[in-house]
Amino acid sequence: MSEGISKPRNNACDESTVSLDSVNAAYSRWAPVYDFVFSGPLYFGRRAAVREANRLGGKVLEVGVGTGLSLPDYRRDIQITGIDLSQDMLARARERVRRKKLSNVEALRAMDAAELDLPDASFDVAAIMYVMTVVPDPAAVFRELERVVRPGGKVIVVNHFAAESGIRAWGERVLARWGDYLGWDPVFPKERLFAATRMKCISEVPVPPFGLFTKFVFERPKDGLPA
């Protein structure tokens, strides 16, 4: 997991209950147990995103690569760049690449997801798993993903999105009181994701456990993005 520094917010769709400092602190705490957490209930969404990326092929950017849990699951003919803001996470990812001899991992870089130091249209696919609810400015992150995938390229998003009603919605509102400490936003509606992008959503699929997460696939128009 990673996050990006917020740019000035222009509308309510950009608002988040987490701050940059809180996320940094949270993921310093998470780093030692990150593999355990992501090997459990978050495994299914991670696997779904990697399968989609493997089907599409090409050059892949993984935003919020964390400790690199997903890296061994990519096809070896896929070129992967991973970014994360947390140096603690990246140190573990580099060790995983070394241990697993993952020669297709081209780079693991510390980077702000909201201000990517990457060229325009330089990737075929961008994958962002369980990140949108931990960034201070989700819209800025999504605009950057639009920019760095090529025309016709895909952006794969796996995330938890807020329930509209029921006991789950109540529980999410309660958790939101501690969003800053947790380092993620429990009440992130999927409409905020759609409002943040000009790309076309071509797939929306719930993923286990219990449909708590959703995998979206967005496509950048082949003729470029509208103004």
TrEMBL record:
Pfam families membership: Methyltransf_11 (PF08241)
Keyword Transport: no
Record keywords, A-Z: Methyltransferase, Transferase
Domain Methyltransferase type residue range list: 61-157
Alphabetical GO biological process terms: methylation
UniProt-recorded Gene Ontology molecular function terms: S-adenosylmethionine-dependent methyltransferase activity
Family annotation (PANTHER family): METHYLTRANSFERASE, METHYLTRANSFERASE DOMAIN-CONTAINING PROTEIN
Record's protein name: Methyltransferase domain-containing protein
Species per Swiss-Prot/TrEMBL record: Stappia sediminis
